[in-house]
Amino acid sequence: MAYLSMMIVVWNIMNNLAEIVTYLPMKGITIPYFVKRFVDPSLAFAVGWNYWYAYAILVAAEATAGAILVDYWSTPVPDAVWITIFLLVILFLNIVAVGIFGEAEFWFASIKFITIMGLIVLGFVIMFGGSPNDQGRLGFRYWNDPGAFTPYLVDGSTGRFLAYWTAFVRAGFAFITSPELIALAAGETIAPRRNIPKAARRFVWRLAIFYGFGSFIIGVIVPSSDSRLLSPSSNATASPFVIGIARAGIKGLNHVINAAILTSAWSAGNAFLFSGSRVLYGMALSGDAPKIFGRTNRNGVPWVAVLATWSIGLLAYLNVSNTGAQVFTWFSNISTISGFIAWIVVMITYIRFRKALVYNNLLHTLPFKSPFQPYFVWFILGLVCVLTLTNGFQVFFPSNWSVSSFLAAYITLPIFLVLYLGHKLWFRTKWMIKVENIDVISGKKEMDEICELDEKPIPKNWLQKAWFWVA
């Protein structure tokens, strides 16, 4: 339920961005660029640094996750060694071996795709009684005992709702910064006004398959009471899929899957370091960050920005003095709240963009229009604001109060406000660009002329027709 709910939020964010970038699919565009153009330079400055902060924290989160996954094998090697290896490899791929970055990501992504599809199929096999041990047909056994809902903090229906709401907030971590990739890719995409809407429409179905079925399978093959699940009280942790395979008695496969998931964490850390460094590099070029972060080597790699982003990943060494579960929760809270703030800014930008189109009588020129707008974006904006404010509601229960958990859940909010208000006071920018002054004209004619040259490919046979539909 939580993942399905979050999918609706992400679908809206994806459509908001798709409408904007198909209207202006300019090369080198970023989210802060649209925020500065349609809303306010101060908000663009704050959200740019917020994105960098989120990506940098995600590097630390993935390094921590990597140490947790390796700990499944109970190696005598300290966690600090695995974190060091993890961080050095992604640094190497981002600076020294940048030429094979794309190749590495291709193989990482292929492993992830094959693994998750195989796990979903295997999960259904286990569910219907295909496991080699004496589990029998699981069906929905664990939905009855210990139960599909585990009351959280309090008993009864309130406890069940709090459990759902906590899962809803936590599900955001899986999607943070994902929809934004469509905006970054639009300027580099062939035929953006044909391919970006196609990607946006199919994005929700891909989420349903990978996250919807994935979370469903986890709830079917693993009881919530399993002691090996990630929790503050237990550091003998593993992926729920690995636990489910081990419970089914499938020997050896749990180690293969754990290794595959480890490569996924490595891939994510690699991509987050790349994205975060490019955000910082872009801000340096636009004057929103110190010029030193705009330095590049002879291969064009912004090595100073890469090192600055990577250095935040060193926070993963907190894992040495705390449980991996606790540290991972801190990082996931910090990055999730940053992602929610970024989504709020994206929706505000979309609302201003749409109002400017209406004012200029240009709404009918949108190459791609998503359904239920503008009402849907207002509903999701209110929902994400509530999610942001309740991200760490658990700490306000007397038995759960923790200064570290409170800071992890809410420290990003004052940081963002300081960046926003500080820039506004320093540069004396207006509160918000007036609708009549928002520029929705510049670049539009040039983009129209370029996109008119696009010729839709005509399939020669049924195989090509199927491929064009998929790709």
UniProtKB/TrEMBL annotation:
Major location category of this protein: membrane
Keyword Transmembrane helix: yes
Example of a GO MF term: amino acid transmembrane transporter activity
Pfam families assigned: AA_permease
Topology with respect to the bilayer: Multi-pass membrane protein
Transmembrane segments: 52-73, 80-101, 107-128, 203-222, 256-281, 301-318, 330-353, 374-397, 403-422
UniProt keyword annotations, A-Z: Membrane, Transmembrane, Transmembrane helix, Transport
Database matches in InterPro entries: AA-permease/SLC12A_dom, APC_YAT
Domain spans labelled Amino acid permease/ SLC12A: 2-430
Entry's Gene Ontology cellular component terms: membrane
Presence of the UniProt keyword Metal-binding in the record: no
Compartment(s): Membrane
PANTHER family per record: AMINO ACID PERMEASE, PROLINE-SPECIFIC PERMEASE
Protein's name in the database: Amino-acid permease inda1
Organism: Clohesyomyces aquaticus
